[in-house]
């Protein structure tokens, strides 16, 4: 593969080249990894930045409906939109639910849109790395907005928030009075909570739920880097395309504020450091995954169980062996 040519085509916003490049970064083959690294290094010089928006929510809350409506609205404003998915369940089910072809049908037909389902990997770390590379490729291809979608299962939100400039949490109207079982950590990540399905019979419940979350958000620690009123909760109807213009207005207001307050650069810099540390961790873990390391681990593990070697001595022994 001619990497210089591929790089040029991506910079010219060629969507087929972009799709090929993402396939390349998803490959585990050593020669592909090398080519991918060369491509990413060359494209990093473009200096292009998209607005990266993370979006999380449990299945059925309306993520694909929202992305389709929201994406179409952005395209209507002349913006180019890429959609990437981090789907931790794809590893288990073998096929990505986020890769379902019937999702986002209108958006997928648009020339200004690019949709890529989650790579099927065996672990979240692998999916995270590929998604990070895909985000970088979309930025180089000049997309104005990159939406990174994930199913709300906890750990994948952390990955997505480390890839995003801001984070949206999509919720459904609650039936009862109590807040839904949203984990505090996920609430803390959200810049904007969107209570979807605020239409028809569900509208009163959506309005009530939104007020509950607005109250809960006020109790969370205020972030000094954000303007008054953030994080905030809004109601939307992805189905009826209601409230979407306001969501975009809030997103751009927050993004502008952060850009102005140098939080933006600092956030991206600390994300780069997070991924550097993560790469080191993954590489070290991979060294434990060799036949030699596994056999030695089993051997030392038995020695520890029988009390023949103290755990820390066994650990140092193993690590010394890895260094060779
Ligand atoms: P996802 O699993 O989070 O991607 O959810 P989907 O977008 O597939 O939506 C799940 C279901 O909720 C579908 O039947 C949608 O038609 C419905 N839905 C999505 N958004 C809305 C909305 O704004 N209002 C109503 N009433 N239903 C919605």
Describe the protein's architecture and organization.
The chain folds into three domains: 46 residues, Single alpha-helices involved in coiled-coils or other helix-helix interfaces (Up-down Bundle); 213 residues, P-loop containing nucleotide triphosphate hydrolases (Rossmann fold); 33 residues, no CATH class. The two termini are 34 Å apart. The chain is built from 14 helices and seven strands. Strands 3-2-4-1-5-6-7 form a seven-stranded parallel β-sheet, with helices on both faces. Helices cover 54% and strands 12% of the residues. The chain is an alpha/beta fold and 324 residues long. Bound molecules: guanosine-5'-diphosphate. Guanosine-5'-diphosphate binds next to helix 4.
Structural class label = alpha/beta
* Tally of strands: 7
Compute the gyration radius: what is it? 22 Å
User: What's the CATH first level of the largest domain?
Assistant: Alpha Beta
Mass-distribution shape:
globular
Count of spatially separate domains: 3
Spatial sequence of strands, sheet with the most strands: 3-2-4-1-5-6-7
Q: What is the average of the pLDDT values?
A: 88
Beta-strand percentage range: 5-15%
Heteromolecules bound = guanosine-5'-diphosphate
| Main pleated sheet | 7 strands, parallel
Q: Output the CATH homologous superfamily of the largest domain.
A: P-loop containing nucleotide triphosphate hydrolases
Distance between the termini: 34 Å
Helix % is: 40-55%
**Total helical elements:** 14
CATH architecture grouping of the largest domain: 3-Layer(aba) Sandwich
> What is the succession of H and E elements?
HHHEHEHHEHEHEHEHEHHHH
CATH topology of the largest domain: Rossmann fold
Pick out the low-confidence regions.
Answer: 91-97
